[in-house]
Amino acid sequence: MTPKFIFVTGGVVSSLGKGIISSSVGKLLQSRGYRITIQKFDPYINIDPGTLNPYEHGECYVTDDGMETDLDLGHYERFTGIRTTRNNSVTTGRIYKAVIDRERHGDYLGKTIQVVPHITDEIKRRIRLSAETGEYDFVITEIGGTIGDIESAPFMEAIRQLRWELGKDAINIHLTYVPFLKAAGELKTKPTQHSVKELQSMGIQPDVLILRTEVHLEDGILQKVANFCNVERDCVVQSEDLPSIYEVPVNMQKQGLDAAILRKLNLPVGETPALGPWRNFLERMHGATKIVKIGLVGKYDLQDAYKSIREALIQAGIYNDHKVKLVFINSENITPANVAEQIAEVDGVVICPGFGQRGIEGKIIAAEYTRSHDIPTFGICLGMQMMVIEFARNVLGYADANSREMDAETPHNVIDIMEDQKTIKDMGGTMRLGAYGCDLKEGSRVAEIYGAASIRERHRHRYEFNNKYEQEYENAGMKCVGRNPESDLVEIVEIPNLKWYIGAQFHPEYSSTVLNPHPLFMDFVSTVIKNKKQLQ
Ligand code: GLN
To answer: Is 135 part of the annotated catalytic residue set?
Structure first.
């Protein structure tokens, strides 16, 4: 079929969860047999979020093909199981760069380069790119930011033009907010009306409205919004706050969102899919009332900074019939004197990824404590590197062991800069990024967990385990059990004598999805639960 385009915009306020709505729409269409992809267009000027501090924009998510992207791509993959690529994440910076590069090359010789049509044409080209592969029936495009932002104006104009060009093959879903004013005891639709007017003033009529609300909206309110905004009543749905984001697709289906979309695009509606596996997951989630506490040892005191790790742990918990309670342990505050007390609160520990000096000594102290007390521990990227450094300092006897990232002069550089990183000067997009192969050592714990001899996982780092020390580690009990066949880089270390002490140089969290939880997280959480029972 000719690909259909769905544009998802947001109004009134930010943080309404456009990413979750886009993912849910993707999921629902997929369950009707359609091939879908979801892409995010962000109006900021950074080429990608790779150089952004997580405090600014949350976690940086990495695609298989090595693009550093917005964390919403993580939701897209977790909900739908699709694999996103560099085409799925575009920023204003990338758009301008492409246009300016072309200008310098002489491609527009003689012409004045302007936002309209040159920038808008480039946005349109990128929006159509995924569709041109012929691999998708639906291309869902989420536009970051809020209607009325100066930055998003070119994107809105591009959508307006595309809708005109695509005719019946494109629709717009607009997400707004209906606040409840406590003092007046009333729900207010005016912000929604204004937001839709703003959209209309840009020449875009929404086809579907999704109203975010903390309070259930009665039919009268939905009818009123429909009347004032020129939208059919059955194309106005509400998205109430729910205990879990994973409830959203079912809630949207219940209100006929997918059916409304299909009708608007002149496609047959047919029977409502049962969403069997998804509902099974929700059922397990509802049944998982026993709590297991997992500590996230990291430096970013912000939920979104470790988004994919959190979700991977929560998913693994549900499949192990437990509710994972995540406890953030700020590594900057961990000292040898208080580590026991801080870790005592949790049943297992994840040592989180990161960059730079801040908070690393706390991670090392935590790694020493959990190793010497046999508390299940999962080190991810920088977390793995800290496990390796701790082992060198306290077991191999190199008190000054470090990573070159933290101490360029360290005589015991157990974590060293990768050879091909040494000459790189630019910060953006230059790390070891994306999926690489990894051979697992026969008989190792990880080989058993994965049930495979070789795997592929996504990376985002500049530093690596220094193979010069491998034999010493092996002799002392920390085993190098995964390595990249081409470069010989060590990708996984484990201490088989402990209950669960595994460090991965890659980011397994990126590929854990609702219907396919990641084996490492599954096994880690199940071990944490078993260990907890033994202690009780
Ligand atoms: N800073 C470390 C490196 O560059 C680890 C990166 C990470 O945790 N993603 O190797």
So the answer is: no
